[in-house]
Amino acid sequence: MVDRYLRSSKDLLLDAVSKRLPRISPTAVTFIAFAVGLIACIATWRGYYLWGLGFWLTNRILDGLDGSHARHYAKQTDLGGYLDIMLDFIIYALLPLSLVLSQPTQVGFIALALLLISFYINAG
After folding, report:
1. DSSP 79-102
2. What was the pLDDT predicted at 83?
3. Angle in degrees, CA 10, 30, 99, rounded to 5
4. What angle do CA 63, 3, 116 make, to 5 degrees?
5. Structural domain of 84
6. What is the DSSP letter of 44?
7. CB neighbourhood size of 19 (10 A)
8. How many Cα neighbours within 13 Å face the side chain of 71?
9. Residue 96: CB partners within 8 Å, gap ≥ 6?
10. Least crowded by CB within 10 Å, which of 15, 40, 112, 120?
């Protein structure tokens, strides 16, 4: 719902960034985003929450950039789209888990379960 209003601004910004990127594969951008997401999960798990937030925000920007980059250079592929969503969902599952594992409690695990359930319902 909110995406409808923000998408054009996001596309405008990311298209401008994409034009300045070197001609690297959009799939490489996807894997870089995934690696940054994993770093966010590790930082969060270790209790470095601000670092985790920073890496997660960078992951989100790179995640938007890979699609923009693919469109800009006409390199969209089904495999690229599949990898993008699969790697995103891995981060979507690991980040909340990392947060709970940084300070494990029964309430935290219940909150984690409810959060993950909401992600899966939303994705459907």
Report:
1. HHHHHHHHHHHHHHHHHHHHHHHH
2. 92
3. 85
4. 65
5. 16-123
6. H
7. 11
8. 12
9. 112, 115, 116
10. 120
**Cβ count near 22 (within 10 Å):** 4
If you compute the radius of gyration of the chain from its CA atoms, what whole number of angstroms results? 16
Q: Is 9 a domain residue?
A: no
Query: So what's the pLDDT on residue 11?
Result: 66
Write down the pLDDT at residue 2.
Answer: 62
User: Which amino acid makes up residue 14?
Assistant: L
The enclosing domain of 26 has a CATH number of 1.20.120.1760
Nearest in space to 33 (alpha carbons), one of 79, 88, 72, 115: 88
Q: Among residues 109, 98, 100, which one has the least CA distance to residue 55?
A: 98
* Within a domain: 6: no
For the ranges 30-34, 78-82, 83-87, the lowest mean pLDDT is seen at 78-82
Amino acid at 108: G
More confident residue, 116 or 46: 46
Q: How many domains does the chain have?
A: 1
Tracing tokens 């599949």 back to the chain, one arrives at: 82
Contact 47, 102 (CB under 8 A): yes
